[in-house]
Amino acid sequence: MTGFGPAIDTRPLYPRERGLLLDLLSALPSADWDCPTVCPGWTVHDIVGHVLNDYLRRLSGSRDGHRGAVFADDETLPAYLARTNEEFVRAARQCSPAVMTGLLAHLGPQLDELWAARDLDAPADLDVSWAADDRPSPAWLDIARDYTEFWVHQQQIRDAVERPGAEDPELMAPVIDTFMRALPHSLRDQDRPIGTAVGFTVTGPSGGDWLAVSTPSGWRLGSGADLAARVTMDQDAFWRLATRGIPVEAARERSSAEGDRELVAAATSLLAIVR
How far apart are CA 33 and CA 10, in angstroms? Predict the structure, then answer.
């Protein structure tokens, strides 16, 4: 265990999550591909194009060492991602649903093969900035972050076309657990005595209990005796909060909290995407 908490191996979940997505997409009527989603300006077709971009970018960069698009002058990481994601999504509008579904089915096993060869404790190919800015991320966190992205985008598609979500705890619990690795980062500006702890409970079959503790090197996941604040939130509200599928205030309305108000406010501002 490190300051990131115990490792999560999401690699076995990739084929199952993808299988559910491919089954869903293969059964969608043509009109459903044009449904608007929670992602501003993006339809279901656009989210599928974005997922395809993620597959291609990962294989090109992590497997093939391809540099990819370069940053513009003075461009921040959020601005770079927003620009390059939008560029690909616009281009993918030229592709039919059948072509994109087929590409996902073809490329997915190659991504599985790439991750299967990884040492989970080795340095990540891409650091997870929302978990820590000052420490290199382990590979397992990088891989888990990508898993959460694919799961979330599938949920956004399911919401848009009014299909039940892929909320089996085996698939969803690792998403909640991975997102909670953002809790210490959410508390980074809160200066408290060493050993101060903030508890966060997520209710539901995929939930659990987590503690962030103030240490000499910053907030870390772990255990502590001095519980200064606690937040309880249902699992649906939590993953939507972490990805800003709902506003912070809406998530707070679906939660309960006690203790230090500033710590509660920081914890319920948790963000597990680059923004």
Answer: 28
Query: Can you name the residues that pair with 211 across neighbouring β-strands?
Result: 199
**Residue whose structure tokens are 């079959």:** 205
C-alpha–C-alpha distance, residues 178 and 208, integer Å = 12
Asked whether residue 1 carries a pLDDT value surpassing 70, the answer given is no
What confidence tens digit (pLDDT) does each residue in 220-237 have? Answer: 998 877 799 999 999 999
Mean pLDDT over 17-40 rounds to 98
**Same domain? 132 vs 38:** yes
Final residue belonging to a domain, choices 121, 142, 166? 166
Q: CA angle at residue 221 from 216 to 227, to 5 degrees?
A: 80
- Is the pLDDT at 3 greater than 80? The verdict is no
Contact (Cβ atoms closer than 8 angstroms) between residue 176 and residue 263: no
Helices first, then strands: H and E counts in the chain: 10, 5
Query: What is the per-residue pLDDT across 91-119, written as a single tens digit (0 to 9) for each?
Result: 999 999 999 999 999 999 999 999 999 99
Does residue 188 sit in the same domain as residue 161? Answer: no
Q: What percentage of the chain reaches a pLDDT higher than 70?
A: 99
94 and 68 within one domain? yes
Q: Is 204 left (phi over 0), alpha (psi -120 to 50) or beta?
A: left
Q: Which residues contact 94 (CB under 8 A, 6 or more apart)?
A: none
Number of domains in the chain: 2
SS3 for 222? coil
Place of tokens 């080795």: 122
Question: Looking at the structure, do residues 129 and 209 belong to the same domain, yes or no?
Answer: no
- Per DSSP, 231 falls in state E
